[in-house]
Amino acid sequence: MTGLPDLLRFQNGEIVQRAADWPRRRQELLEAIVPLEYGGMPPAPRGTRAETLHACPTRHLAGGRFITCRVMAEYERPFTFLLYLLVPPGAGPFPVILNGDACWGYVTDEIAAAVLRRGNILAQFNRVEIAADMREAGRDAGLYPYHPAATYGALAAWAWGYHRCVDALAHFDCVDMARIAVVGHSRGGKASLLAGATDERIALTAANDSGCAGAGCYRHQGPGSETLADIVGRFPYWFGPQLAAYIGREAELPFDQHFLKAAVAPRRLLTTEALGDLWANPSGTWLTHEAARQVYRFLGVEERIGIWYREGGHGHGQADWEALLDFMDWQFRGHPPVLRYDLNPFPAA
Predict the structure, then answer these.
(1) What is the pTM of this model?
(2) What is the pLDDT of the chain when averaged over all its residues?
């Protein structure tokens, strides 16, 4: 499709014939994209502990509970960061939406109330506790000193943070570990997509306006969209050291971002996009969606992949969250979908 590398052909040229062959092809996709683009993934710790620091009723969200938790990744010396849970009333277990974008500011009360009202836990952490989001910060702080010889960039470190939060969530009886969704916006959406692609415990992966190196496309650049040269020039520390060599040679990349999307299959995947967010390449995002959807169709689970567009620009607002909550209700609870998740706004693309 449109010159994108074939998802259903093994590296040796053989066609993927059966659904039982997909795990092997999925591993090939990850081996192609994760080391080159993201510099690999941080090694997992020996274990992860979760320490509850505080729990109390929420005053502004009636009936809910607020829990502060310390996540402790067990290396020779523990690496720690904070995880915050808003839990709806009742015994559960409840599905979880795990959001790593606390660095943008926590979600609004209206969004939090909507998450709880639907019977979900809202879990949030600040991904920049894992790795700073500043070029001048270097690799002397955060997670990097724990793996001094590693080449992973910040996106992989942030995805590792999602994985450790999943570890920690297993310590809470109120959590339904079979119904965990991850979400992020913009660069956080790039991280959530990588996290979902590389951890099969995540049942639903969602990325909002994630664009270049997220849900976008290197081979198809829509008008005004961010290029590989743009993103590596401004944020080289997000990536592995080899990616810059492909600036101006994008067609030679052994992958495009449909590899990352397809690696989520057969689990659930939603991308939410804004038509006015040209920098995030909404038309290229449609092409990678269509390519990944071929895999979901091949596996007989086409209903598990969705894309949703709205008018407007770059942001992660109420409408985007409601689209995710509707998709979760459909996927996790079997409720008929309220929205259409497969409408093509680019019929000529």
Answers:
(1) 0.97
(2) 96
